[in-house]
Amino acid sequence: MAAAAVSEAWPELELAERERRRELLLTGPGLEERVKAAGGRLPPRLFTLPLLHYLEVSGCGSLRAPGPGLAQGLPQLHSLVLRRNALGPGLSPELGPLPALRVLDLSGNALEALPPGEGLGPAEPPGLPQLQSLNLSGNRLRQLPADLARCAPRLQSLNLTGNRLDAFPAELFLPGALPLLSELAAADNCLRELSPDVAHLASLKTLDLSNNQLTEIPAELADCPKLREINFRGNKLRDKRLEKMVGGCQTKSILEYLRAGGRGGRSKGRQEGAEKEDRKKRRERKQRRESGEGEEEVADSARLMLKVLHVSENPTPLTVRVSPEVRDVRPYIVGAVVRGMDLQPGNALRRFLNSQTKLHDDLCEKRTAATIATHDLQAVRGPLLYAARPPDDLKIVPLGRKEAKAKELVRQLQLEAEEQRKQKKRQSVSGLHRYLHLLDGKENYPCLVDAEGDVISFPPITNSEKTKIKKTTCDLFLEVTSATSLQLCKDIMDSLILKMAELSKSASENKEEDALSGTEADPSLNQRAGKDGQCPLVVEQVRVVDLEGSLKVVYPSKADLVTTPPYVTVVR
């Protein structure tokens, strides 16, 4: 009877055992109650599936600990994803040893500390000897275990963003401690100091320590031989010239400045001379401001401008009307128009699409919290209607596919997903298939319809081929939808537009470098630039109204795009 009860409560486990699956995904409605009934832990039956390579348990507010038996029962586990649960304050018992584990994601939990016996695993011998990627972001950690490098000596990527760390353990930067570490992210913490021993990270390529409490950047950072990308924005550095550089200059320039400022008397002399010149320029700017002549220079000195165009200033504003049926499906939507993007140089389009994917994985919590859609504005016919339709009535031409009814599309994706599972002996899948469960039990599906009656968006699944972004796209319509929160839509839209500003700034800097090197630039780009050579992005307000025309939300309002990086100036 007990075995039958377990099978009934956890049918996924019985199916995985019967089909000898190598991947298992536990999520969705009902999971929280089942875990709660199991004492806030995973069921012991799960740890009798020794063939598992991939295990994911996400979004379960009642999961406080994985439970005993994981390390012994899942010796072949390659990836363990336990994100957005309630793990904490420690891990009891500790996770390791897991000799084959390569990816560990514990982000979005309530972890406060990982001491010996309640952490990732033993240090001697290493508990996670093959671990390559560790994500501890979005927890409450105040310190890292001192033996982290010994526990996971082959670590390549370490994400600590959004914790409460005030220092790195010295053991992390010992010579040879983490010889393969190439990515270190610890933004949004309370870090006060970065040790000069960071230079011992011989493979480091990307370092993000933005929004901390650092006052200095050690000159030794420039000795990291492979370092290509750094982010120190949001720190109050004593060296004001360096603080300005980290807000607007490329990594190469910052590292050169650190080399010059951290070596020998001549270098020190050059640094002092540069600081003296900076002080002189600041005095001159202050005098001009006091005499009323400095306002234009403040605008000219901005690295990149975001000009907000109010609805009242726009002769052809875009409007989204909302049908009441979406209230029970996906009630929240925010829109914006951005003009002036340049997606033609190099891999600019790919970087833009990759940044959207990253936002989907992080802030949007793999589309479970919200979904972003971007459209070529030239192909959008307004006004738009945000509605909900029965699956048989909703037709769309999905990206890269032929026209289909939503019901047919979802069925086709389900068949593809099942085929993937059978071929690879997996339960989890990739691509659009990952989001199908978000439509479970819905009688109507949400959609965005243009003035010609064409569905241009079917959240959270896909956009339409009609409004697909191309390299030649320069004006975009952006939408963010959510089933949970309007403020979340606005926050994600803020992040998307600021990311677009960052990409635009990068493209502008690359054009400046091309000009310095004698490379010919596209003359059409110069025509779009202002008198100072910049190409400001214009963000047009989009109103969301009900069918009677009453305002529901307008974006961006005065409360949006408030917190911006130093290199972005918002003009309203």
UniProtKB/TrEMBL annotation:
This is Leucine-rich repeat-containing protein 47. Pfam families: LRR_8. Residues 269-278 have a biased composition (Basic and acidic residues). Residues 329-505 form the B3/B4 tRNA-binding domain. Gene3D superfamilies: Phenylalanyl-trna Synthetase, Chain B, domain 3, Ribonuclease Inhibitor. SUPFAM superfamilies: L domain-like. The keyword Cytoplasm does not apply. InterPro entries: B3/B4_tRNA-bd, Leu-rich_rpt, Leu-rich_rpt_typical-subtyp, LRR_dom_sf, Phe-tRNA-ligase_IIc_bsu, Phe-tRNA_synthase-like_B3/B4. Residues 260-299, 509-530 are annotated as: Disordered. The keyword rRNA processing does not apply. PROSITE patterns: LRR. It comes from Microtus ochrogaster (Prairie vole). Keywords: Coiled coil, Leucine-rich repeat, Repeat. Residues 399-430 form a coiled coil. It comes from the Eukaryota.
